[in-house]
DNA sequence: CTGAAAGCGCTTACAG
DNA sequence: CTGAAAGCGCTTACAG
């Protein structure tokens, strides 16, 4: 009896290619044909059970699902995506998710997208442009169906390429007249102006800056300085630190600032972290906040204002940004082709000094 | 002249299947064959330029790279992954990245993995087990080469399935004697004990709890209560809140707690957020912290201790967890088959009261 | 409501 | 150092 065939065909993986050269393949190497064979239908029908169940007869549906359950079959989306040109993947390019700022946005963005059947590929760009450019290749190699960007994309070549890909793009957390596609953000420049105005209204004589040198922080700086210049304050003391900003840098930046300009009576910090660090330094130096030194931060951390009532801060609604960005992408997938553009604004929060 | 052929063949997409039924396909629909044709090599050579450049002659390498650059070709990893059974994808299953706790871990994990050529698929599980189970299917459909889990996986069926897939798994942020595979974490139970001990050493008479009802917080609660019971304190007042914990819940939980047990002189809160919220409430109630009421939090936020020196807190090194988890996975990919298991411990931090 | 054929864009395993 | 053939596991576009 040569070439005896296997007897137990219940989980028979015949049909496996003759040379069987590829051993691996995730989740037991189960394929759609295995499910199809067991359920007595064609692979296409199994495919439809996952992707368009309404088009399958209830009984067939049930039978296939039983087999899927029994075998523990999980479709291979690498194959599915390749075949359908639909990866069901959204790329989110973010400088960092540590220390909050963007984490709330990514959180709700991810929740909203996954409810709609998409997953989020997280790409951390740090704060360098060159990095962002090479990151884009990595990201595009997964053929995402949409992209969330943090900030308005910097280099023209990146913007150009993103436009060429032809997938929806949402820029967030910043503002521009010429977005690549869609935008949910706010103006950092106007925030700087608003904080300057607040300081002026409070009668501050010598406002100063502590900022990290990233694009958005520098835009806030520009708005701040321009507004002060309008009021005749053309020389503004400042300490510029390397991103990412941290408690420690804020802490060391304040003494440095005051050393060069001892009469400073208000500081606009590039982030809540820097502000909290500066406040710690102020405490150590015996400075009363805000009476001797007003401190203003920036961010979306309830934390900051809760723990530090004497802090003024600019609050941004990171949650709304994330939800809106997701909605805009999903609308596109549903054929809505408007060019969504939203300024979510900001608010300057100042607690009553207790 | 019927069937005239196109003249300009410089970016000629001939070879495209006759029926051309699939229009889409990302990044201009450029395929490896387009690059190969332009460079005068076979597709396999182009593939090697990306995946194993050392095996290609320097001149060929250069020529292919020029064409890639010129055309703006980005390989399709859906196809590559399907063909090679290597997705270069790592799944990270995390309850949430908002409000920090895990965000630092994910940040450094993602950085480390991407430096090694892997991308991170972020899957947010919330705090429900059932969710985690269905999330696993979604995640496995991408055929990740490794999985990072937050916490020790709950249901046995999930553990079972994960083991069957045969890819490396790292559980983090918790401790168990029977991990699925590898583990980088610490014992929540022992943290509870340690905080109880600290309170006892300080002579607290009536320690209490404010915790969210997630598995890990409840483990801390158990350690806390057991240790107090050893000291003869068998009745411990507590308020249990629904996760995720927040400032607001902490704020409302404290009055509730004190209403039922006015003599409480120490509270162990399930997280820094809860603790900060509770501190806010204490302030409003005119309670001195820590002299009248000691408050202890939990987390990895510099923030908490910096802004709130009167807070005692349990600190965990989220960064180390992320880096170690990444290293363990990468070791596996490099053929190191040890079953890595690390207890990173924790520390109770108490600032000198100023 | 269901299926046979062809193809998605890569890489493997040889062979030279 | 380079390439021709075959296959990875799905889905599309028909047709019935």
Automatic annotation (TrEMBL), chains A, B:
Coiled-coil segments on the chain, per record: none
Keywords of the record: DNA-binding, Transcription, Transcription regulation
Pfam families: LacI (PF00356), Peripla_BP_3 (PF13377)
InterPro entries xrefs: HTH_LacI, LacI/GalR-like_sensor, Lambda_DNA-bd_dom_sf, Peripla_BP_I
GO MF terms held by the record: DNA binding
Stated name of the protein: LacI family DNA-binding transcriptional regulator
All residue ranges annotated as the HTH lacI-type domain in the record: 30-84
Keyword Transmembrane in record: no
Domain of life: Bacteria
């Amino acid at each position: 009896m040569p070439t005896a065939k296997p007897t137990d065909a219940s989980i028979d993986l015949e049909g496996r290619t003759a040379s069987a050269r590829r051993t691996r393949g995730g989740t037991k190497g189960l394929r759609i044909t295995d499910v199809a064979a067991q359920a007595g239908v064609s692979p296409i029908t199994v495919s439809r059970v996952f992707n368009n169940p309404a088009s399958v007869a209830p009984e067939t549906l049930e039978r296939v699902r039983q087999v899927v359950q029994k075998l523990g079959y999980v479709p291979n989306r690498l194959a599915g995506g390749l075949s359908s040109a639909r990866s069901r993947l959204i790329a989110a390019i973010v400088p960092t998710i540590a220390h909050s700022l963007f984490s709330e946005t990514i959180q709700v963005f991810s929740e909203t997208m996954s409810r709609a059947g998409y997953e989020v590929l997280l790409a951390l760009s740090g704060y360098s442009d060159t990095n962002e450019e090479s990151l884009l290749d990595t990201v595009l190699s997964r053929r995402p169906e949409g992209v969330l960007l943090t900030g308005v994309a910097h280099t023209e070549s990146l913007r150009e390429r993103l436009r060429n890909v032809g997938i929806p793009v949402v820029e967030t957390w910043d503002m521009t007249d010429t977005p690549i596609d869609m935008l949910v953000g706010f103006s950092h420049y106007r925030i700087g102006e608003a904080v300057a105005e607040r300081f002026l209204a409070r009668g501050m004589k010598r406002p100063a800056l502590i900022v990290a040198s990233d694009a958005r922080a520098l835009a806030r700086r520009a708005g701040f300085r321009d507004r002060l210049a309008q009021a005749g304050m053309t020389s503004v003391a400042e300490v510029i630190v390397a991103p990412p900003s941290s408690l420690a840098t804020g802490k060391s930046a304040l003494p440095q600032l005051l050393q060069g300009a001892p009469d400073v009576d208000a500081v606009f910090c590039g982030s809540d972290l820097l502000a909290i660090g500066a406040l710690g330094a102020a405490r150590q130096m015996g400075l009363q906040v805000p009476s001797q030194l007003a401190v203003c931060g920036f961010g979306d951390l309830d934390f900051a204002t809760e723990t530090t009532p004497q802090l003024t801060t600019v609050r941004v609604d990171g949650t709304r940004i994330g939800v809106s960005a997701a909605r805009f992408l999903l609308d596109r997938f549903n054929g809505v082709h408007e060019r969504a553009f939203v300024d979510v604004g900001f608010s300057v929060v100042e607690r009553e000094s207790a």
